[in-house]
């Protein structure tokens, strides 16, 4: 099995990929952030998808940025489908350690909630106490998902979509 890698702007995505749409999450008034950086040319890395097929996992990373009524919104996703299912739970732990590196030192910065929801082997939602930001860590079977969201929505209200991402093949 050869290794495969590709990446492209989200707007030009021409193949299947697991994507939780920031536009659908935000609803009316959402617009993707226009691509513009002074002196920078190239793809819109703020609305981008990449794929890698490695020896132990298929990995999708999706970054989305936009605004609702001038307020910036962001949703970053890491999606993993592991060839060895017993690695899924340790990967979820590693993702939590990596993305919540300061939890042990600043526990009052986060509200951590582990949920017991049908369709998920593990599901953890972490809210930043001081601003509108959530991180969601989920596992179902051999699939692991990490979402990092900044905005006014609650990811717990979209667990059906999250479960759909974990079921995507």
Features:
169 residues; nine-stranded antiparallel β-sheet; alpha+beta; 40% strand; globular; 15% helix; 3 helices; Protein Transport Mog1p, Chain A; 9 strands
Structure description:
By secondary structure, this protein is of the alpha+beta class. The protein has a single domain (4-167), classed as Protein Transport Mog1p, Chain A (3-Layer(aba) Sandwich). Helix content is 15%, strand content 40%. The chain has 3 helices and 9 strands, in the order E-H-E-E-E-E-H-E-E-E-E-H. Strands 1, 2, 3, 4, 5, 6, 7, 8 and 9 form a 9-stranded antiparallel sheet that branches. The radius of gyration is 16 Å and the shape is globular.
Question: What is the CATH topology assignment?
Answer: Protein Transport Mog1p, Chain A
Contiguous low-pLDDT stretches (5 residues minimum) are none
**Given this structure, which CATH class is correct?**
Alpha Beta
What is the number of helical segments per DSSP (H or I, 4+ residues)? 3
Structural class: alpha+beta
The level of helicity is: 10-25%
Radius of gyration: 16 Å
Shape: globular
Number of domains: 1
- Series of H and E elements: EHEEEEHEEEEH
- Termini separation: 18 Å
Any idea what the CATH architecture is? 3-Layer(aba) Sandwich
By DSSP, the count of extended strands is 9
The biggest sheet, with number of strands, parallel, antiparallel or mixed sense and barrel status, is: 9 strands, antiparallel
Mean pLDDT: 89
Strand content: 35-45%
